Structures are given as C-alpha cells and as structure tokens.
Amino acid sequence: VNTIYRSKLEESIESTKMTMINGTxxxxxxxxxxxxxxxxxxxxxxxxxxxxxxxxxxxxxxxxMSIFWIKRPLSPTLHISLSLTGADAFSSTALGIGLIMxxxxxxxxxxxxxxxxxxxxxxxxxxxxxxxxTVFHLMALAINHYLGILKPLHxxxxxxxxxxxxxxVLLWVLPISFFTLYxxxxxxxxxxxxxxxxxxxxxxxxxxxxxxLRNNTRQMAQNVKAVQTTLYILGSxxxxxxxxxxxxxxxxxxxxxxxxxxxxxxxxFIYTVINGLIILKTLVNPIIYAARMHEIQVNR
Length: 300
Known about the structure:
0% strand; G protein-coupled receptor activity; transmembrane helix; TAAR; cell membrane
C-alpha cells in the first residue's frame, strides 16, 4: 500500500512540475511576443516621426537659404522670423537625434547603448532647450507685433539693429544654458557624475576657444498681417504644444495622474501623437512666420 501511495504521490508531483514548466514557458512566450510587438511599434512609429523631422529640417533650411538673396537691411520682423526658422530646423534636428538615440536604436532595434549616458544627457539638455528657443522666438515676435501696432512712433528707436541682435543671441543662448546648469546642480549626478566630468571639462575648454558670429543686419520695415499672424501663433500653439504641455505637467509618478492609469501601449501611442504634433508645429512655423513674407516669396 505504501509503495502504491508513494508512486501516486511522485506522479502527482511530476505532473505539477510539468504544469508549472509549461505555464512558465507559455508566460515567457507571451512576454516575448509582447516585446516583439512593442519593438515593431517603436521601430515603425519612431521611423515615421524621424521622417517628419527630416521633412521639417528640409523645409526650414530651404526657407532659411533665402537670406542670401534678400535685400539688406532686414526688418526686425524678418530678422526674428528667419531666426525662428533656424530655431525650428535646430529643434527638429535635436528631436530627430533624440528619437534615434532614445527610442529607435534601444527599443526598435534592441541595441543597448553602453557608455552613452553623458552624451544622452547633453542631448536631452539641447532637445529641451531647442523647444524653449522656439517658444522665446514666438514671444519675441508677439512683442514685436505689439510694438509695431500700438507704438509705431517708438518702434524704430526700440527695435534697432543692436537691440534685435542682442535679443536673438539671448534667445539662443539662455534656454540651453539653463538646462545645462540645471543638469549640473546635483553632486555626483547629471553632468557632475564621474562619466561626465572628463567630457564636461574638455567641452568647456573647447567651448571657451570658440566664438559665435551673428548675422549682420539692420534697420526695419513695416510688419504685414500682424493680427492674422498672432491668431496663427495662438492656434498652432494650442494644437501643437498644448497637449504635450498638459501631459508633461499632469502625468508623472507623483502628479495628478500616474503612468499606470493606462497600458504601456496606450502611453506609447499618446506620446507618439504628442511628439508628432510638436514636430508638426516646427513644420507649420516657417509657413506662418517666414514663407508668407514678401521678401522671402520673391527670393525663393
């Protein structure tokens, strides 16, 4: 009897083990299948966004190239608009490189990037700064329109060549400088980590040896369609940036809404749409601010 009981017990244990092994194998297969689907989503989703970035860069550079045929002196409005076009090309470039390094290569291709943390942190500072550069340019254009419409007698004395040039330099330098300093605040973290110290020191030495030259332009002309342009500014901001701003402000681990409220796949699609709208904004900006100007239309 004991022998029969022991034999049945062993059969039961073996059956349980096989069930557990089969269950584990099935779970692993399901996880691998989900991982493969996610990698496919990352590969094709990020490729589409990268394509939009390339299109945006090409359009912005094409418009920016018209500066070589525009008659001097440039108006402050045209000066700021061309700088905005350059900012959009720069922003699209930073966004595209960020998508390649942060999403396409590690998640789409499954290639782990070793020893790239410091570079990726610097890229993030540039990427965030490039978005703020564009925002500051839009604010500068809004103030420029305000001065031209409501204070036409003081406009010439305020928006001089020197003031416009200083303003544009600040618009380009301040955002990236802010994020670079912000990522350098915490000891042994960010740019103060061991990996970044040597790179940061070398970059600082090289950076001090370089001087930035700015375009030589001056004087002014009347602004065209200021009210319509302002409405375009507001509309493009609401559509292009407002969803991203709301998500980044309201959704995080300790915010009003947490990431676990929806599935990872839903979050992927949400952030894909948000990034697509931000890139689309860089496509629309040159059409709103530069391509509609008479000087650029004549010289394209």
